[in-house]
Write a structure and sequence with these properties.
mainly beta; 2 domains; 16 strands; 11% helix
């Protein structure tokens, strides 16, 4: 009888512990859990689902009339990550529409505009409409690459191949973003702090 009672108590203690674990963790995938008391998952960077304003690669970014067009070949989007230890879990690209053709992008994570990369080598991605969700967002998982950081960085995005039409992203305002026009290696600040809605999900140590 004592053994049976002990078994019942042990069983309910295990159930209670499992329920508490479920409350204190978030399931990132089938095998990885993180403790919410020690870490937090946060999306950092320009993030808007609004399609009122769009900004694009191979599109004109010059807002002044009667001026020569400034056709954008690449963006560097500022990610205001905290000065704490974190891991880059995922990148999110909020496209302005459903893609009608394959889009080939070069992606890099840089400490400064033209400085050391956080990656071993840049990413070369081919994206199509089958990879976009219902809001036209493309998510790229970086968990297996175990990318660590402890400060702000830039997401660099460049269109590698000519597209039939500009590749548009939802645009956030009053952000920090730079662009490179075609045939120009200099970085220029975007007007009004316009930035493509490209951001990162960070697992941050508290």
């Amino acid at each position: 009888m004592k053994i049976y009672t002990l078994f019942i108590l042990t069983f309910f203690t295990f159930i209670a512990h499992a329920q508490q674990l479920d409350q204190d963790t978030i399931n990132l995938n089938e095998t990885v859990l993180f403790d919410k008391t020690k870490f937090k998952l946060k999306r950092v960077g320009p993030d808007t689902k609004s399609k009122t304003v769009l900004v694009g690669l191979k599109a004109d970014l010059n807002m002044k009339k009667d001026s020569l067009p400034k056709i954008v070949k690449g963006f560097s989007v500022y990610i205001n990550a905290p000065k704490k230890s974190y891991t880059v879990e995922q990148l999110n690209f909020n496209f302005g529409n459903l893609l009608t053709e394959d889009v080939k992008l070069k992606i890099d994570l840089r400490k400064q505009l033209d400085s050391e990369s956080l990656l071993e080598k840049p990413l070369f991605l081919t994206i199509n409409q089958d990879q976009q969700d219902e809001e036209h967002v493309f998510h790229y998982n970086l968990k297996e690459q175990n990318i660590k950081g402890n400060d702000a960085f830039y997401i660099y995005v460049e269109l590698l191949e000519e597209s039939q039409k500009p590749v548009f992203f939802n645009a956030a305002m009053f952000s920090k973003c730079y662009y490179q026009p075609e045939n120009d290696k200099q970085w220029h600040k975007t007007p009004l702090g316009i930035a493509p809605s490209i951001n990162a999900d960070l697992l941050i140590k508290k």
